[in-house]
Structure prediction request, 357 residues.
Amino acid sequence: MDAPNGPGYRLPAEWEPHEATWLAWPHNASDWPGKFRTVPWVFAEIVRHAARGETVRILVQSQKHEARARGVLARAGAPLERLAFLRLPTDRGWLRDSGPAFVLRDKEPRPAVPDFDFNAWARYPDFARDALVPRKLAKHLGLALIPAVKNGRRPVMEGGAIEANGQGTLLAGEQCLLDRTRQVRNPGFAKKDYEDMFRDLFGAEKVVWLGPGIEGDDTHGHVDDFCRFVNQETVVLCQERDPGDPNHAALEQNRERLEGARLAHGARPKIIRLPMPGRVAWGSQRLPASYANFYVCNAAVLVPTFNHENDRLALGILAEAFDRPVVGIHCLDLVLGLGAVHCLTREQPLAGITPRT
Prediction:
């Protein structure tokens, strides 16, 4: 489908109404070494709660893979009539990063999809199938594919590297997007290149650049592991109270950046501190466990929990911040894959409505 002409696109906030949630049913056992058998049941909990308020669209590798997924989902009590399956092979299932960023424009009856590239966080070699997912889903849905060319090439973009309030402000991970040596997404890109792209494709009038990410994050600084909008003017920012934990200094640096920042309409962001669940590890490996990796769907806010005393505190803070139920999703096994609920999900917004703030 041809792309609409002219600018005016907007990346909606996650709390705005969805037409659907997208996930890719797990299949790559190397992401969860030794624990893969438990992971489908975590997916089933995510699907069960999300499907109460919207369609859940699930990518599967094959007919056999779909049958296994249906079996797990039926046993978990997911409403099968609210589910749709699409056989589209992937390398992994982290659709927050490999899936499409659906954008809206006034008077357009349907979302559109920017034609971004994907390179597996500039870290893993197997991403050829994942890189095709946005184009294939746009074609499957009959949505416009918007050219996303910058400096003569298709830029790499990952949903976990940014966070939008739907009203012109974007948070972006400086460590992730501007890294020039370790995990390079777009060689030669400067802040202005990203800011121009975010303005044209996401409607971002203001980009707030945040600093280091949390320890154990293999993406090298995704913001969805430590700072999220909960409404147009308010963010939750993770806090590590133990000064001996490496996350303490990084998160306090981000607090200082946010305190000096301005949103698109000129106000300073309101900051709510969200606790961390301490050090979550598998053997000697630190895992990126964080309550900030929640997903806002129509029916609920799905929050990762880690069998830690701060689980209840985090759920309570988020319950006060949102206008819908907050549900804990046990993620001690899931986070072994170096991601949690938000990393797995992609919202497809409902077009043709007035944005919610």
Summary: The first helix runs from residue 39 to 50. The domain at 9-349 is CATH 3.75.10.10 (L-arginine/glycine Amidinotransferase; Chain A). The chain has nine helices and 19 strands. The radius of gyration is 19 Å.
